[in-house]
């Protein structure tokens, strides 16, 4: 086949068909151009076409090639005068992309304008909605400040929805923020996974400004259950690297330039009352450190096992109550009735160095006895029996001898106008001297049966001390009593209210 030159590439092919002049066309572009006589080797056509099907392949040609006035464009009805696409019908998609791909498309569902994309809008590698993106942001969204209305004005909202068909351990997250670093260089600035900020650039007053708000809701009317609801859950994992200091929550010092900050709270907790058991702060263990400053605890405060068995409890009036094994042992000195001793001239006052005491022979209805009276301590626990003790020394050396001291105790309650009793509760203790040199000291103790004596805190307790005859091997000489003291278990510090 001979090659055709570029000059005759578009020459019309030769034809034996002869057209008679007849009536001229009213216009070469008319849909129905008039040809009254068309002669061919098969015959002569004499007809003026009035319908599309009167011309061979006319409909196919019209639908294939775009008319100059775009009247056959299927999108003509969706083009407005600004050459923008306006699709008014519901459930229509505008698709852009080669080969029928759906890289970007808009779907109109008739109720809400929704946008879907399998790729992304890019502006020099960045995305900007309602604003030109900046180089430091790969996605930048800015709302119009003039059009704020209603109760919800959101620059962006995410909602992850899931409906499991069986029990599942899959993750469902509305938003995940993550920052990843690469390379061997150091980062001296801050790195955020998620940052929330509020910038008030107006002159009005903002009542509540929350940089980050967190909520867990179990909607009313449904029978669902949330086992563990955590408004903020924090995890830190060093894995194979090293973390020098880790803080689950770190609150920086609040800054003030030329403004004012009336009251600053590093942490502020509203009182919890909604639960069956309410803990304001709950720690499962570990050490706690409170630095310099004033630490105020208002209300009942329990220290120890938390208020179960053994603990110290501070009441709102500051009184400290000790419970269980949380006890302290305290002592109270009894002073002898010196006026009676002076009046009777007995017992005899003696001394050894700087210590003075009363020398007691075996009592024989001869005023050789000591008296004392004091009130039961108000901080006594009211349960544990107090112990009354006398201390003194032997004025003569003794070996394997014995001496016996008797303590007589009685009480009354003036708040109920008790009649003063003449009875006593007698307690006797005998002591073996062993090998004791002259002036050897001894401590003789007597347990006061509180239930038997029937005394309570703050009631007066009268005590009489006598030396009585030993069961055997009586000592030579006398026993000198230098002083007396009662020890008791206290369950509180401070006077009882």
What is the topological layout?
Blueprint: E1 18-19, E2 38-40, E3 43-45, H1 58-64, E4 92-96, E5 104-108, E6 113-117, E7 127-129, E8 139-141, E9 301-304, E10 311-314, E11 320-323, E12 328-334, H2 338-344, E13 348-352, E14 355-360, E15 370-375, E16 387-394, E17 398-399, E18 402-411, E19 425-432, E20 435-436, E21 441-447, H3 450-453, E22 460-468, E23 479-490, E24 492-493
Parallel strand pairs: 7-8
Antiparallel strand pairs: 1-2, 2-3, 4-5, 5-6, 9-10, 10-11, 11-24, 12-23, 13-14, 14-23, 15-22, 16-21, 16-23, 17-20, 18-19, 18-22
Structural class estimated from helices and strands: mainly beta
Q: Please state the overall shape, judged from the principal axes of the Cα atoms.
A: rod-shaped
Examine the secondary-structure arrangement and name the CATH architecture of the domain at 329-493: Sandwich
- Per DSSP E runs of 2 or more residues, the count of β-strands stands at 24
Determine the N-to-C terminus distance. 126 Å
Provide the CATH topology of the domain at 329-493. Answer: Jelly Rolls
Work out the strand percent. Answer: 25-35%
Q: Whole-number average pLDDT?
A: 79
CATH class of the domain at 329-493: Mainly Beta
The major pleated sheet works out as:
6 strands, antiparallel
Rg over CA atoms:
53 Å
Low-confidence region ranges: 3-10, 19-29, 97-123
Can you give the helix content as a percent range? under 10%
